[in-house]
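> @MW can you paste both from yesterday?
MW: sure, first one:
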Amino acid sequence: MSTHAAGAGPVLVNATRFRAAHQADWERLDALLAQLERGKVTALSAEDLLALPLLYRATLSSLSVARETSLDRALVAYLEQLSRRAYFQLYGVPVSFNAQLRDFFARGWPGAVQAVWRETLVAFVLFAVSAVLGYVLIRHDPSLYGAIIDPQMAGGRVPGASAATLRETLYHAPNGNREGVLATFATFLFTHNAQVSILCFALGFAFGVPTVMLLIFNGLIMGALFAVFVPAGLGPNLAAWLSIHGTTEIFAILLSSAAGLRIGTALAFPGRQGRLEAAVTQGRLAATVMGGTVVMLAVAGVLEGIGRQSVQGDGARALIGLAMLALWLGYFYWPRGGRDGAA
């Protein structure tokens, strides 16, 4: 067992040698904690039980060095999480599922989203630029519309459609059983949006290239829609119609894409780490981001399938959309005091 102490000057710490010296201790502690968290205390030997506090203190020492020398931020986050788990298993009371859930929404998910802010910004820029490109392309050559959006699925939202037809797609609910249709529509849209988000995340393992392509394609769809509605004088109306759910749905897709890009860049540019090690380290952070987007997609599904069809006023739609955007931005990026490390 390594017993490295942070006695030497922190500037001299080499990240590769630091990991090599302590990785075995971290992995052993992680494995022992996993056994305890599953309630398999009897599966641990006397040697394992005696090693737990020593491994915990060694991990705290590693965490201290990692913080002071500004090593990989993901490594710091991993050591903080490992130390926190060890502390509660050794000195704390058993944490219930509800407490873990509260911790996830109070600190875990927002902290992970903040950690991928660069990738989120890149995803937003890609989406926005693609939307502008889609708008310009369709305004210049409407025949390209079918290559971006299937006209059969567009529901009358095609180039050359009359303003009356386009307006009807924004304000009139389908005929028949209104509540049943809206509930079915909400389920369908939630499934579709979840698939897009999961793909953006999962395809990050291919060095992030398919994630970028999927982002660009969805941006083109957005731009193509505006290229249909703007000439009819319905651009603001479409924006309000989309905003009621879009601020949540697009945000969720951007976060899923950011998580995929984090994994993709770790694989493409692992630095001094091996590709597998980099993917595992960044994958924990990305999985936390992705796990929370399921909630956003559920909210977006309700807003899109039911709220957007029930709320007919542009002002009310825009107000709901902006309120949701402010809610998510405040929840994710509002500064939280203190660092949640191990005691």
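MW: second:
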Amino acid sequence: MDMTLCPCGSGLTLQACCGPVMDAESATTAEALMRSRYTAFVLQRTDYLLHSWHPDSRPSRIRFDDTRWLGLSIIGTDRGQAGDIEGTVEFQVAFICGGECRVLHEISRFERLDNRWLYRDGDCRIDEPGRNAPCPCGSGRKFKRCCALPGKPGG
């Protein structure tokens, strides 16, 4: 049995969390879809990402680069439960791309179509972590004392 922790940060194993959602291509809530889509980005599951994207906003393809995903933090949700037809999830994702550490902050919109939650679109911005902010890599240290140091992935 695979005991790999789920990349979404739930604390559960991949097989007890986002794995079944991605395999069945069905999430029970907008947040569950958001978490599974983050996991799909980490695992480069293009098939699932495209399948879980609303047809009105879905790109024709997804390309992966050298991005290293560091962690997902859910800030809040509005609607998006089993009985809703739409919902939003606000989250932050830390990542390293091109040797630079960044934080993506997005408010994603989700919609139920044919009884399936789908990602519609979102409003996002990408920032550099503040020097005194907790390091996005999850070390527990401040950014200036961790990934911002010269020679570190974000420094």
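> thanks! Strands lie at 68-79, 86-97, 100-113, 116-127.
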